[in-house]
Amino acid sequence: QVLQGRPRDLAGRHVVVSAGGTREFLDPVRFLGNRSSGRQGIALAEAALARGASVTLVAANVSLDLPAGAEVVRVVTTAELREAMRKASASADAIVMAAAPADFRPVSMADAKIKKQADGVAPTIELTENPDILVELVRTRTSRSPVIAGFAAETGDANGTVLDHARAKLARKGCDLLVVNDVGSEQVFGRPDNEVTILSADGSEHPVPRAAKGEIAHAIWDAIVQRVE
Ligand code: CTP
Ligand code: CA
């Protein structure tokens, strides 16, 4: 049980955690989404509550039970997630962007259901890039507060290893910590456990061996607590 034997080192702190995956609607019945279950974000919220924090959980399309004791804000689209994060982060000591926002959304949403054409020609859906919420949160903060952590789902490829891509991403995003998931195998989505590396802007690299998502959550808060003023 994550509640036992944990320091209350987040007492008096307000933390904001996002969880789940956003949806972008093509028409009233269809959307573009992703495989994020919200499990890791929920585990982060639970762990922060156990450590005494006041927690805002911004949940995007999560179908799991949410922790009692957290202030929950439910969102659907990336635009809603962005607005909720902007509001909640004003008073935050730490922010963890565990949600998976859709990178792209349809340029426009059809008012009515898109119908099949008699000639069998499939529609072409034009996409536009969503704003990067994490980058915005980093840009709009004052000095080093709040501490901001992002997640990165990466696969190794011809251009570099998982950690090569993650280092570049950490630099691009400008956040303090980046929690790196290797999604090259079926080892992450919807599973109760995870294995991550916590990269820090100061150059440190902390591997967290495979463990329940609750344990991973505490390892992430350990890294954050060290950096909270
Ligand atoms: N993120 C965000 N807003 C977006 C996209 C991502 O805040 N529009 C955040 C995620 O919540 C995560 C971090 O950025 O904390 C990294 O997300 P990831 O999908 O790995 O990075 P991207 O910048 O979207 O790059 P790509 O998917 O191309 O690897
Ligand atoms: Ca992405």
UniProtKB/TrEMBL annotation:
<feature type="binding site">
    <location>
        <begin position="131"/>
        <end position="134"/>
    </location>
    <ligand>
        <name>CTP</name>
    </ligand>
</feature>
<comment type="pathway">
    <text>Cofactor biosynthesis; coenzyme A biosynthesis; CoA from (R)-pantothenate: step 3/5.</text>
</comment>
<keyword id="KW-0285">Flavoprotein</keyword>
<keyword id="KW-0479">Metal-binding</keyword>
<comment type="function">
    <text>Catalyzes two steps in the biosynthesis of coenzyme A. In the first step cysteine is conjugated to 4'-phosphopantothenate to form 4-phosphopantothenoylcysteine, in the latter compound is decarboxylated to form 4'-phosphopantotheine.</text>
</comment>
<keyword id="KW-0210">Decarboxylase</keyword>
<protein>
    <recommendedName>
        <fullName>Coenzyme A biosynthesis bifunctional protein CoaBC</fullName>
        <ecNumber>4.1.1.36</ecNumber>
        <ecNumber>6.3.2.5</ecNumber>
    </recommendedName>
</protein>
<keyword id="KW-0460">Magnesium</keyword>
<comment type="function">
    <text>Catalyzes two sequential steps in the biosynthesis of coenzyme A. In the first step cysteine is conjugated to 4'-phosphopantothenate to form 4-phosphopantothenoylcysteine. In the second step the latter compound is decarboxylated to form 4'-phosphopantotheine.</text>
</comment>
<feature type="binding site">
    <location>
        <position position="103"/>
    </location>
    <ligand>
        <name>CTP</name>
    </ligand>
</feature>
<comment type="pathway">
    <text>Cofactor biosynthesis; coenzyme A biosynthesis; CoA from (R)-pantothenate: step 2/5.</text>
</comment>
<keyword id="KW-0436">Ligase</keyword>
<feature type="binding site">
    <location>
        <position position="113"/>
    </location>
    <ligand>
        <name>CTP</name>
    </ligand>
</feature>
<feature type="domain" description="DNA/pantothenate metabolism flavoprotein C-terminal">
    <location>
        <begin position="10"/>
        <end position="226"/>
    </location>
</feature>
<dbReference type="GO" id="GO:0004633">
    <property type="term" value="F:phosphopantothenoylcysteine decarboxylase activity"/>
</dbReference>
<feature type="binding site">
    <location>
        <position position="151"/>
    </location>
    <ligand>
        <name>CTP</name>
    </ligand>
</feature>
<keyword id="KW-0456">Lyase</keyword>
<keyword id="KW-0288">FMN</keyword>
<dbReference type="GO" id="GO:0004632">
    <property type="term" value="F:phosphopantothenate--cysteine ligase activity"/>
</dbReference>
<keyword id="KW-0511">Multifunctional enzyme</keyword>
<comment type="similarity">
    <text>In the N-terminal section; belongs to the HFCD (homo-oligomeric flavin containing Cys decarboxylase) superfamily.</text>
</comment>
<feature type="binding site">
    <location>
        <position position="173"/>
    </location>
    <ligand>
        <name>CTP</name>
    </ligand>
</feature>
<feature type="region of interest" description="Phosphopantothenate--cysteine ligase">
    <location>
        <begin position="15"/>
        <end position="229"/>
    </location>
</feature>
<feature type="binding site">
    <location>
        <position position="169"/>
    </location>
    <ligand>
        <name>CTP</name>
    </ligand>
</feature>
<comment type="similarity">
    <text>In the C-terminal section; belongs to the PPC synthetase family.</text>
</comment>
